[in-house]
Amino acid sequence: MKQTLSLLLGVVLAASAFGDELGTLTMTASTKGPDRYADGSLVLAGETYLLVYVNENAVFGGVRTDGTLVKADVNAIATTGTATKDARCGMVAIQYPASLYPSLGEWALVLLDTRNANGVGGLVVGVSEVTDGVNLGTAKNSMAPAGVVAQAEAGEGLTVSRKAKLPAGVTAPVISSIEPTANGAKIRVANVAATVPYDVETTTDLASGDWSETGSGRSLQMATHGVSGGSELAATVTAPAAEVRFFRVVINAE
Q1: Which residues contact 229 (CB under 8 A, 6 or more apart)?
Q2: Are 115 and 15 within one domain?
Q3: N or C: which end of the chain has fewer CB within 10 A?
Q4: Would you say the pTM of this structure is higher than 0.85?
């Protein structure tokens, strides 16, 4: 059995062996919390976590905006978990054949940012970091007595720290119309895709290159902001008063 079961940022992972004759293992996972999004806000209740198995000699490759794994040939989603009202991952447990996820691989509990206009459950715009080389592997079934549990705990919570990956073939969005309002603008965005999250940014000085987001962590997505009858997005954005203001739309993913 490996000497340690290391983990990161408040993740609790436990592996139990239930007898060689069964040939099965149980993996449980949770976080101590509080878990946070990249903007520092607490994770909303119902947010998604992925329990990912990483093959031996492989690394976690990240998540695409549509929720699929970038390296699906060497990474596998074993199950999912959800955030509780106190901003942490509740207990997640799976029982599986020992041969399905060999003990020489690694486990990672990954927090997603799926916020949209309705709360959570939209496209993936952010993913918590996984440190390469950290061993999250289970104990070998043949080497652990029945009932033995290995677990560890560290840190305060998971934090979304990198953007999700884009699917292939994404094109640049285009602002098709802007209608000024008393405290911002109504904007329509064309050349958009259903699997891509977008952000509206604003500036008062094009030469400065200083653009700021107009949203609150919830990207524009077709499922919640789509214009009826067409492949466009619609958004009403607010911005501080200024004599001249410029807007742009950017893709909120890598």
Answers
A1: none
A2: yes
A3: C
A4: no
Both 39 and 137 in a single domain?
yes
In degrees, to the nearest 5, what angle opens at C-alpha 24 toward C-alphas 23 and 29? 160
> Measured between alpha carbons, how far is 196 from 162 in angstroms, rounded to an integer?
16
| Count of domains for the chain | 2
Residues 27 and 138: beta-carbon distance below 8 Å: yes
- Here the tokens at position 199 are 């952000």
SS3 call for 38:
coil
In a domain, 1, yes or no: no
**Can you tell me the distance from the alpha carbon of 13 to that of 31, in angstroms, rounded to the nearest whole number?**
9
By CB neighbour count within 10 A (0-12 exposed, 13-18 middle, 19+ buried), where does 199 fall?
buried
pLDDT tens for each residue of 132-171? 433 333 333 333 333 333 333 334 578 899 999 998 888 8
